[in-house]
Amino acid sequence: MVVGSAMAGLLAAIIIMIKQLQTGKAFFDFLKYEGLDFNKPALMFSLAICVLALLIIGIGYERFKENPIHTGEYIGLLMFSTVGAMIMTAYTDMFMFFLGLEILSIPIYVMAGSNKADVRSSEASLKYFLTGSFATGIFLFGLAWVYGATGTFKLIEIQMRIQEMESLSPILMIGVLLIMASFIFKVGAAPFHFWSPDVYDGAPHAVTGFMASVVKLSAFYAFLKMFMVCFGHGELFLFWKGALVVMIIITLFVGNLSALRQVKFKRLLAYSSITHVGYTLLVFVNEDASSIGDLWFYMFAYGFSIVGIIAVGLAVNDSEDRIEALRGLGKRNPFLAIVGIVSLLSLAGIPPTSGFFGKYMVFSGAWKEASWLVIIALINSAISIYYYLKVIVTIASPAEHEQEKIKLSPLTIIVLTIALIGMLGFSLFFSWLL
Predict the structure, then answer these.
(1) For residue 255, how many C-alpha atoms fall within 13 Å in the half-sphere facing its CB?
(2) Do the beta carbons of residue 304 and residue 427 sit within 8 Å?
(3) Residues 6+ apart with CB under 8 A from 19
(4) CA-to-CA distance for 411 and 393, rounded, in angstroms?
(5) Distance (Å, whole) CA 336 – CA 334
(6) How far is it, in rounded angstroms, from Cα 389 to Cα 152?
(7) pLDDT tens, residue by residue, 294-346
(8) pTM recorded for the entire structure
């Protein structure tokens, strides 16, 4: 009942947002939000957040039934976190951004430790809480410096005050660097990535999928919005761009080279996620407003891939979470194997998947600003194909002994079908529709 209500609410929100995007008219014009502006970009990202949250609830349904006592709390936390993600897409001042960030983050700290029978889940919750709190503290410290330099929390006013400055204030520059450091912490980019593998490994599969898709999508857009509006012009842009470029290079190589030797499924996804953070950060080196559309498409396509591959891990349900447990999946459930293979191909950026088109859009947008950086990203993309193909070969290989068939519920089949359509071009159609 709780799961059905949550899914019905998300579906209704999706329909309303699509209608509003098509007509340009809000359903609730009489509501005035202080600090929030659901303009077209905010609606597009909120729409993607609701779609991905709906799919994550759908693939986790079978696990919810195993522990019905806590299903209500789990779904409630996930919905609260989804609301926080939507606030982070529509904020117009730093106070509302911070409010959305905490509404997004605090439920995930709890959900990461929801598997009480596994000590790794408790460890994941504690590590995520400590590092997340540390990153929040850094953000608030940086925000205090920015407020000291500009005297306001509103994004537009911050932009105006910075443009009025004859020369960049040292206080402002320190604040921007601290805010950027907190952002790097939150999205799991190197060198502040160390929490990601343990948290991904210990958290339940559905929570891992939610963190990798919904949380990252909202965090990237929120910070892109902040840096484009407030800090994305003139000397200040050049000031933080250099530091970010160095972190992009480190992130790409750390994620890829670490993923090469992984034998556990979710740890591989964690390092793969770190690499994709590096690709996504390329949208920040481009001052063009089109980078918002590139980010939306890339993260939406990436989200479909995550939903597909997480569903595979949930269905196989190996207690040790070994990649080797995927061997023989083609015979145990051919449809699940197809979804898993397409998900991995999309993550690798192989045509004609949506992952390929997403990478193309991000790379081409960054090419005119930093072609040499895109070349480094392409080299890393080639490296990543090795470990994705290794998993694909494992899925396609026959098992050493006879294994039990995997049966999927009708709801899981529907969710996987939607994810498969999304990975094979639905994102392109969706982009055209909007």
Answers:
(1) 30
(2) yes
(3) 27
(4) 28
(5) 5
(6) 50
(7) 888 888 889 999 998 988 888 887 777 788 888 888 788 888 889 989 999 99
(8) 0.90
